[in-house]
Amino acid sequence: MKKYNYKFLLRTVYGRAYPRIFGTIRQPSWIFFEILLPVLSIIAFIYVLRGFNAKPEFESFAVIGGSMMAIWFNVVFGMALQLRWEKEGGNLEIYITSPTKLSWILLGMMFGGGLATSLYSISVFTISSYLFGTTFLWSNWYKAIIIFISCVVSLYAVGMSLSSLFLRFGRSFEYYLELANEPIHFLSGSYYPIFSVNIIFGLFCSIIPITLGIDGLRQVLVLSEYPTFIDWKLETLIMILYAVLALRFAKFTLAWMEESAREKGTLTLKWQ
Amino acid sequence: MNNAVHAESVTRKYFKKGKPDKIALDNVSLEIPKGSFYGLLGPNGAGKSTLIRIFSTLLLPSDGRVSVLGYDVKTQANDIRWKISLVAGGEMSGYGLLTVYEQLWMFAMFNGLSNKEAKESINSLIDVVGLNDSKDTKLSELSTGMRQKMNLVRGLMSNPEVLFLDEPTLGLDVEIARDVRSYLKIWMQEGQGNRTVLLTTHYMQEAEDLCDTISIIDEGKILHTGTSEYLKDKSNFDIKYIVKFSKDIDPNFSINNLRIKTIDSKTVEVLIGNSIENSSIFKQIKELENVISIALHKPNLEDTFLALTGKQLIEKI
Amino acid sequence: MAIKNRNFKKGIYSSFLIGWRIETNWGKPLSVLLVRTARPISSALILSFMYSITSQGTQKENLLWVLIGISTWGFVQNQVEFMYWAIVSEREWLRNIKNVIISPTPFIVYLTGRSSAGLPFGLFSFAVILTTSNLLLDLGIKLSNIYFHYLFLAIVLSFIILFFLGLLTAGITLSTPKYPIGVGEALVGVLYLISGSIVRPEILPEVLQKISLSLPLSHLINLYRYALSPSFRTYAYNWIDLLSTGLIFSIIGYLIYSFSFYRARANGKIDQQTMY
């Protein structure tokens, strides 16, 4: 019998990342959906800000927030709900009956999806800032990269742990996730500085990794008088901690949820 | 350990709002010897797929004990998954934008094969099943038959010790179904006793053609187990001659002490029991007037199923 | 003719039921309504916070203008989304699209019924956002000032215009692979910017201003504003703009749907499966 070693892990991760990466490339129209749409959303909010006579730094905030929200959306629908689509498509039972671990397959999705959405996010950021001539402190580019990568990894790790909940709760979970997803746009401070509302409110919203990522990027890239409460270094550490905890949680919950689904017979039950 | 699969008093219940809703399997016990091609024959809803899902570790039994190659399905599922494969009929798994080769390669990675092993295995198998020309075709462009061939390759490329086939020829045309069956026979022969197959089907031809041993299942219970010849004998189904005449038969028509059943005005069945010692009967029939054809009908599995369960194997609408 | 009429009525009714049941069978009705309303409420909250931080509460009419636009957006999202998702779900998950298309009920009738199931959600979203934002932010909308007849007409015209918008997205969806965001939401996203829902057309670049004025949605949302608040009744409402753009847009929507449907059939893409 073969072993669960690092080679097997890498093969699984690469195998599952492959369709994510190459499937996307084979459909060039992804450029429209994945990049131009978030750009349009940013444009809309910037014009709203202009309508409210907001200060120029708000446009920089909006560009950062809108670019990062593209990642959040992909995490929820590309990761958390992926197992539901795999079940409907008949792939889940093949994954379960193959010797590899489900968590490794999700890791592959995370890797492939993370790579793709990082590219989208950077593209959205570049196009939006060019269109509106927004200014950033480019001398802090290395800090921005550290914060960005930490945020992407932590979000995808959260996505992985959410996906295991689907196995147990089925279709209703998708809708509760959707219910939770919408307020994230609001609670992440994607288009306004979160700590300007209220510090307690900002701290509460900092439970969500993307809030920290957006705030951290604004701290290092935008010169602004608006207050922040948590230093970007601490925010980065918290996001890394999220990633570690979420991955551990995912490993545990995937095993537990799979067992529960095998018992209830929901692993192969479609449309539920 | 001579059994590939051992199931003892297996029950599977489904609940709805905490109350028992359905019993899919009711105290099922069976043993599948290593190296055998075992068939599970039954109508739709009999429990075949439920049983195969328990064996392939997708589902847990509510009660009872199940082991595959000596490993318990409840507690040692990961050990089992190294050694098995499941191929279901009508399977639409995979990703439409990937090619056949890419799709198979991806599943090979999940089975722990290296790139080199995957390449060798995939190339040899797709050559045998006739998918070479479609190697670079996207899944979304494949016909149903080609897709099922691809699924079969997926199931075989990891060289499993036990292969579970859940109605693998469902929805396939006659030619492709025949190709699939002939390849399975070759695959078994090449295994030299190290490969075991469990096939669920409701096609009697398929079960007779492929299986060493057949279990008949209905309403979650195993009714009978044996070779197809044994089951036919057990059913006490009569061997018969179907005799056609060129003219209408006399209503009082008879042949010595033979049992006759009238089918229509020009056709009768002459029932000769289980025995195939019938040369004298044949002579008697041949000497009758106006006989245009005499056909010997031995009971097939559908007849056997009907005799043993009182039901049709495939419901006629 | 009798059979066709029966198919039409049955088709509309049964597809409405299907749409409704698919959306509501996973939870209690209130949970379902909350989920469907969450997106526009979230957008309303974002805009309210942006407003309070940037303008310190000095531009209430601006906020009212934006919030009425947001509240009507629930109609757009729900109705268009129901139609687009009818195709995606039937094609990719339920694998039922072939059976629906070859049934005697025309596919367009099926889509009509499915998108109608979004109307109750749109109405609920509209009512919730307007009521809560009016109460919490003191926007000044009073029942005595509302032109209910205009409001009723606006809702009826919304259904018709959004039906054709939904048809347009449905047609394109038939020819394109499924994406997480999707064609319907893509188009809704573009319209969000240029239809005068949250962004005043006069702020946009000239080209986009012209496009905005040629969209029936822009005039429709202004009709809602006209009906709900005296602040937006400086001039009489211009029905000609709404009706003319609405008619042209409806014809274009129908033609695009018909062409896309034909093309999807010709290229064998009706039941393609493209999930990755």
Structural features, described:
The complex is a heterotrimer of chains A (272), B (317) and C (276). Chain A is globular. Helix content of chain A is 79%, strand content 0%. With 272 residues, chain A is an all-alpha fold. The model of chain A has no long low-confidence stretch (mean pLDDT 84). The two termini of chain A are 35 Å apart. Chain B has 317 residues and is of the alpha/beta class. Helices cover 32% and strands 30% of the residues of chain B. Chain B has helices at residues 48-55, 77-81, 100-110, 115-129, 144-156, 174-191, 204-210, 228-234, 279-286, 301-309; strands at residues 3-16, 19-33, 37-41, 63-68, 71-72, 84-88, 162-166, 196-201, 213-218, 221-226, 240-245, 259-264, 267-271, 291-297. In chain B, strands 6-7-8-3-9-10 form a six-stranded mixed beta sheet, sandwiched between helices. In chain B, a hairpin with a 2-residue loop joins β1 and β2 (19-33). The model of chain B has no long low-confidence stretch (mean pLDDT 87). Chain C has 276 residues and is mainly alpha-helical. Chain C has helices at 2-24, 29-55, 60-93, 97-101, 107-116, 119-137, 148-175, 182-194, 206-213, 216-228, 239-266. Chain C is globular. Chains in contact: A-B, A-C, B-C.
